[in-house]
From TrEMBL:
Residues 309-411 form the Cytochrome oxidase subunit II copper A binding domain. The keyword Transport applies. It is found in: Cell envelope. Keywords: Copper, Electron transport, Heme, Iron, Membrane, Metal-binding, Transmembrane, Transmembrane helix, Transport. This is Cytochrome oxidase subunit II copper A binding domain-containing protein. Coiled coil: none annotated. The keyword Transmembrane applies. InterPro entries: CcO_II-like_C, Copper_CuA, Cupredoxin, Cyt-c552/DMSO_Rdtase_haem-bd, EfeO_Cupredoxin, NosZ/Cyto_c_oxidase_sub2. It comes from marine sediment metagenome. GO terms for cellular component: cell envelope; membrane. GO terms for molecular function: copper ion binding; cytochrome-c oxidase activity; heme binding. The chain crosses the membrane at residues 6-25, 405-426.
Amino acid sequence: MNRGVVFLIILLTVVVFAGLVQYGWTNRWGGKMDTTVEPPLVLAMPQLDKSLSLDDSDFTDDVWRTLAPLAVPMMHQVTQKPHGQHLVRAVNVRSFHNGKDVYFLFEWKDDAASRVHDIDEFPDGVAVGFPLGGEPPAMSIMMGFQSAVNIWQWKANLDAAVWGGADERFTANTNYLYVPTAGVPTADEPITSACQDLIATRPGTLTPKETTALTGRGQWSDGAWRVIIKRPLTTGDAERDAQVKPGKMHVVFAVWDGSKGDRGSRKSLSEWLILDVKSSESADGAQAGRSLATMDLPMLAAAAPAEKEEPRIIEIQAKRFEYTPSEITLQKNELVTLRLVSMDVAHGLYLDGYDINMNVEAGETTTRTLRADKTGRFSFRCSVTCGPFHPYMIGYMNVEPNTRFHIFVGVAAAAGLIALVSALVMRTKKEAPQND
């Protein structure tokens, strides 16, 4: 056989074998998972010299044309069965304030307007939630919150009672009280607003407030709802009311489709967003939609000094009795921020080799930033007794050297050396004298 052909066969075999070894070594702990947290959407709230009284004409007022809608994607609420049968995929949101009141305009598709709340009928609705504190609480798949949140909820049945359009089945004898209840204050309070001002701390704690300055109105036409919610920017109850002030704050949205059985915790829910409240000095008019909204945070980062390195954010959700993700992979010298989120009870995270200990209460979040300057596989485990299977709550952080190029050079050199040795051996055998 020609020595050149033999050489190529040997070289190809070595290269393929080296490639398989490299692939197996790279994936020895499973495939890599992208755990980078995408920046939240940003909804701009400029200050405009405009007031709305929630008349019919306010839904088509020119002020809304100056504000490009932010398309907010929604996700299923998956606790209650049946799961995943219906989803309001997106809601368009516009907002502004005039220095006194704040306004939200919500628009979403709905084939039918559900304005009745009965035994087997449920009204449409939309809500906006504000965390009563700094860092937003962890998302819960029940009510969407795991610590104090102020919720402004518009409901179509309340809207019908206030603005007209109520079902005629419920108009007869509306003031009638049976004898056992006559004179006893058990009748429903008169409905004065299409919105409910609510407080939720954890699942099952949704509580309406006694008084509120919250108002709203909705219009349904051509298979879509348009809802305006209005409230003063600030109130005298900072403990239980969201105070909307210039700056950035978190906000979350929810939508109910009553004709599809949505009610209570059955709803479509958004992720946490950033509400950027502009003052009169900083107001720039209109928002440029989703593209500019998602560019807001990266542009701020780009404006920072060039020498400032931004860490990669990795969110780790702690829930009895596992971490999600349970394994993360970093490159050596990478700067990362670990964001630990408790989804149920108090948890901890102790990272071996880096001596980092993080503790977080139920429904809260904590962060730590580190430089992955040590290579190897480091375990992290729950440092707080969270239940009977607490010792098995373990994850791993893999810090890999950036050695792909070095491995390739080494494999190529080894392949060349093996091929050279093989050629020399074959030549020696060919030139050796034959014995009779």
